[in-house]
Specification:
Largest sheet: 6 strands, mixed
Distance between the termini: 30 Å
Strand content: 15-25%
Oligomer: single chain
Shape: globular
Length: 261
């Protein structure tokens, strides 16, 4: 089956999902969410895909939900169950994916678009990008990770500043507060993301997935429990073929040949 609201391609171990509703600045609707979910399912299943990249077509990453789709009258009665089944599940799937996910943020990245980016592991922004959560101006809150994930990324104080003011900030400020990992000139964004993806592909795929699991799980536990999680993760990895190959390659001063086993 093809896609109508996203572009999906795989090349050299990197899958790229491009949100493709440029006339709507890549605002989400039900079709786009379904298509992104379908593409992510393929990324889950294919061992040859080692890194996932998200970006937007045209002059924006995404401003979040298309309010012609997000109809208040239709959503009011079942908002909690719909949010859990639709956006929360999608963003959780991104966070739990045992492969690195990079958000290549071009232009406006706001509301649900920024919540999607927060579900990614690394965020690289173009210099012209603007980021934020304007929901309070519409009498609602960022309710798909904009509160819960944001506090872990930038701290409670900065998170409250972003959410309560509803203002969009520059890419430079986003980098200064830790919301994005790096800012590059607009015309260098794709090259920087390709370079980062190439670096990640060289690393042990099982180790990358385990590191994501342990760090995500350790966010909500005490340091002692965090150390237990690290030991468990290490004990699982040491039983894999890839860990033995990694050690052999290091000793033989060569690039490892990963098997994802």
């Amino acid at each position: 089956m093809g896609y109508t609201t996203i572009l999906y391609e795989v090349a050299d171990g990197v899958a790229t999902i491009t949100m493709n509703r440029p006339q709507k600045l890549n605002a989400f609707d039900g079709t786009m969410i379904d298509e992104i979910s379908r593409a992510i399912n393929e990324v889950y299943e294919r061992d040859d895909i080692r890194v996932l990249v998200f970006t937007g077509a045209g002059r924006a990453f995404s401003p979040g939900a298309d309010f012609h789709w997000f109809n208040f009258d239709e959503w009011e009665a079942s908002i909690r169950s719909k949010a859990r089944r639709i956006t929360h599940r999608l963003f959780d799937d991104l966070e739990y994916l045992e492969k690195p996910v990079i958000a290549a943020i071009n232009g406006t990245c706001a509301g649900g678009g920024l919540e999607l980016a927060l579900s990614c592991d690394l965020r690289i922004a173009a210099g012209s990008a603007r980021l934020g959560f304007p929901e309070v101006s519409a009498g609602i809150i960022p309710g798909s990770g904009g509160c819960s994930r944001l506090i872990h990324v930038v701290g409670v104080g900065r998170a409250k500043e972003l959410v309560l003011t509803g203002e969009l900030i520059s890419a430079e400020k986003a980098e200064a507060i830790g919301l994005v990992n790096a800012v590059v000139p607009d015309d260098a964004l794709s090259g920087k993301v390709r370079e980062l993806a190439a670096t990640l592909i060289k690393k042990g795929p099982l180790a990358l997935g385990m590191a994501k699991h342990v760090m995500n799980a350790a966010l909500g536990v005490d340091p002692h429990t965090g150390r237990i999680l690290e030991r468990l993760g290490t004990s699982v990895l040491l039983k894999t073929e890839d860990s033995r190959e990694g050690v052999r390659a290091l000793k033989e001063n060569r690039a490892p040949r990963w098997k994802c086993k």
